[in-house]
Amino acid sequence: MQRYSKEINKEDRIIAYFSMEMGFESHLPTYSGGLGILAGDTIKSCADLGVPIVGITLLNEYGYFFQKLDNAGNQTEWPVRWNKDDFLKLLPAKTSIQIAGRDVVVQVWEYTVTGITGGKVPVYLLDTNLKENYDYDRYITSYLYGGDLQYRFAQEMVLGIAGAKILKEFGHTKIRKYHMNEGHAALLTLELMENDKVENNKTSYDLDAIRRRCVFTTHTPVPAGHDKFTQDIVHSMYGDISRFGIDEDIYSDGKLNMTLLALRMSYFVNGVAKKHSEVSRSMFPEYSIDSITNGVHSPTWVSGPLKKLYDEFIPGWKKDPFTLRYALSIPRRRIWDAHMEAKKTLIDEVNAQTNAGMDQHVLTIGFARRFTAYKRPDLLFRDVERLRNISRNIGKIQIVLAGKAHPSDWGGKDMIRQIHENINELGGDIKIAYLANYDMDIAKVMTSGVDIWLNTPRRPHEASGTSGMKACHNGVLNLSVFDGWWLEGHIANVTGWGVGPKPTDIETEIEADDAVDADDLYKKLENEIVPMFYNDRPKWMNMVRSSIALNASFFNTHRMVQQYITNAYCH
Q: Which one of 50, 77, 126, 238 has the lowest number of neighbouring Cβ atoms within 10 Å?
């Protein structure tokens, strides 16, 4: 695929990238977490590389939610207040779709992503909050992942169907590939079939013609992460989809499964890590599922002090993150000084927010992700006495945590409350802080300022885990369960440490054992990590340099986008 000039005409954009959420900056609260941040990083790398792509997402006018925590760790959710007129441009064209027999008008806001070399990618944010719509329809694009199943299905109709229509309205007449980032946009395949039938005077729907134009990336090995809708909802809100002649295998338990629809209608399908693709093939054995491991946008996630250092020793790294392999030539002391500058920023922020009284010179462990059962945010606190003993007798540790629980995930909310009890219980021996309302700004400060990045999902439920990639870009060492990307990035005592046993082949895979993993986690802290941090700084810094050189140089979205171009877009 040829690279285009900085200014790309609409008719020359040949790839459309659909995602329910996209995260570009914290002041644009149009994301909830990893899926949206990945989408934003993907678009940024496309702008850097001059890829002729256009993005489609929802406005999410009130964001995911603003998290408030009381002293006991009780989470409450509030709408996010922001002024879209300050950051987005309202475009003149509109479109409309039918939802439950009603005409729903959709307007479009544009956000332009400008790459490091001046390349630009337009992102269209779909918005139903117009006075000509019924009250219910005006709120379809208000809350990301909010409401009941009818609300969610309406959102997915807007994303897929209105998204496909708006591309035509805006003159994107030569789209060759439609990339669905998760199954939320799968209904666009039905709209494409309708258009193909009408425009080419066909007497029936041509599934194969549409399949050749569709790419699908699945992101979750957790069954609950695959949206399903009852036939009553589908029929009442969209209509009878049997007319398309799609196999009955797009249904599971009598419900329309959006992942199965996307699988059935895409010629190229991929998981987001090698292990995740293996797990996905076991879940959907009738489909061919390739692997393109996720990455992060290097210029976005490297801290200011490290950017200056990389600019000095590795000029051009922003354009070509693969050159970060030359981090091995940077003096260890210079990397340590840059890290300590980033760490001071984190510690100052933590102390200002929480009055935790943290010390810049203490080994600091970071954990931040969505709080839900399979992420096991409580694994580190499984044996608080053993954790206390490590800090008292081997070397002091302090812990910074952050993360939201979905408003309906009561188990996740209970975990936040439990960790606040642990904070109080360990307060005399281990300083622990929980930062509320985890967002991109907090993520940048945490993934660059801690010394150890902890990830403890229950195997094999982690699809990828991009926060650890952000950490390694900043010379922060990973301590992670062997799942997702870490199976590819881990080299023992070179790039970080593993937690628990390595998985076997998928046929004999068993879920992680909490007791076994917690014991191994404590052993790693007791015998390797804490002693090395305090007593063998040269070895520690050798690992830091290796983590940057071996992992940051590979686990970035420049490499990832180039793989999509080669494997998915150019066929």
A: 77
Check: CB of residue 185 under 8 Å from CB of residue 19.
yes
Half-sphere exposure of 305 (CA within 13 A, CB side): 19
Tokens 């937690």 belong to residue: 499
Q: At what angle do helices 34-49 and 557-564 cross, to 10 degrees?
A: 80
C-alpha to C-alpha distance for 556 and 299, rounded to whole angstroms = 10
Place of tokens 């070397």: 395
C-beta separation of 140 from 151 below 8 A? yes
Compute the distance between CA of residue 403 and CA of residue 150 in angstroms, rounded to an integer: 27
Q: How far is CA 483 from CA 261, 472, 494, 503, 507, in A?
A: 27, 16, 18, 8, 16
Q: In what order do the strands lie in the sheet with 228-230?
A: 228-230, 255-257, 251-252
- Tell me how far apart the terminal alpha carbons of the chain are, to the nearest angstrom: 10
- DSSP helix/strand/coil, 255: strand
CA dihedral 511, 516, 520, 523 (to 10 degrees): 170
pTM of the model: 0.96
pLDDT tens digits, one per residue of 344-384:
999 999 999 999 999 999 999 999 999 999 999 999 999 99
CA distance 224 to 374: 11
Q: Which of 557, 484, 464 is nearest to 41 (CA)?
A: 557
* Closest CA relative to residue 74, chosen from 425, 415, 422: 415
Residues 504-516: tens digit of each pLDDT: 754 445 666 899 9
If you search the block for the tokens 């995930």, which residue do you land on?
409
Query: Could you name the CATH architecture of 306-499+508-552?
Result: 3-Layer(aba) Sandwich (3.40)
| Strand 53-58, strand 120-127: pairing | parallel
Per DSSP, the chain holds a count of helices (H) and strands (E) of: 21, 20
Delimiting residues of CATH 3.40.50.2000 domain(s) in the chain: 10-295+560-569, 306-499+508-552
